[in-house]
User: What shape does this take?
Amino acid sequence: MKLRISITPKTFWPSFTVRTSRGIIPQKTSYFVLLRAGTDWGLGEGAPLPGLSLDGDGEWQRLQTWLSKNPERAIPDPGPAACYAWAQNLLQQAGLAHASSLRYALEAAALSLTSGQPEVYFRNAFTRGAQSLEINGLVWMDDLQAMYHQALEKARQGFSTIKFKIGTHAWADELALLQAFRTQYPAEAVTIRVDANGAYKPDAALRVMDDLARLHVHSIEQPIAQGNHNAMRRLVAEGAIPIGLDEELITPMPSDELVDMLAYISAPYLILKPTLIGGLKHTADLITLSAQWGSQWWLTSSLETPIGLTALAQFAAEHKASLPQGLSTGKVYQNELTHPNRLEGKHLTFHPEARFNLDFLTATEA
Assistant: This one.
């Protein structure tokens, strides 16, 4: 039986102003990989982020060109290990083994194809509808007053963990925002996470962490810029609150060197973004290895559509996620896609009877 692969780029327009540490995102392109074998099909999404991803449009175009010249491809066998190996082998043949978003999309598409139901990437209690995932409420970057009202609304919706982005306004003003929110919701009611996106110098980061500790903030993600390993190790040892590594994981560093670096820093938390850090297998390996030096983890989405988020949520459940996950499941895009996920308060659930709609896929298959 022949395996057919099509790749469809699609542009999505945010339903509100999406501000990130790298500026406003007016639109977002995702690449959808559709695998067909007879009447069976599987779907995966690659969503590179310009300015942050180590791959992008060029790698996707190279993959499309390679597929058009190499039509004979093996059908992946069922199971995560076989699907991961299939994706790795295909990308190695194409000379694109480094391309993270391609790997994530191909791994997910293979899992979807071989599961027996395209919407299911992993068969577990979550995909049977018997278990939910807790997620954090995300406060999007905005002016401080708007962020405060976002946070209050997230708390009223039932989120018990709320994440704020910091480092884009004057620290005194951001601290006042957090203090005002903490006055309304004490630590026993709501856990606060913050993400600095590498905004601070090491000494300033220590002072910020002291202030955050007085508000009983759970953790700070990436307090200083990536690549400052000695300084980050010092912050882990001396900082008043725990650190989570985020951008530190988005690196061309070979896997063995990355693991050595993570063990050296020994941050309490890893923030894992499979689209950006090397795909699902690499993320699974980091989860296993990080336990050796005592790091915990949570997944964070990277502006994927609900297709990519579906695979992320199931992967988190498969790996027994114990902390609230950073999966942005709100209606981010005006042209949102149909999906089987439901958000009920802070709990994300999967509805097995729901189906993906493939009407948006129009690419010619290779």
Q: What stands out?
A: The longest helix spans residues 80-94. The mean pLDDT is 93. The radius of gyration is 20 Å.
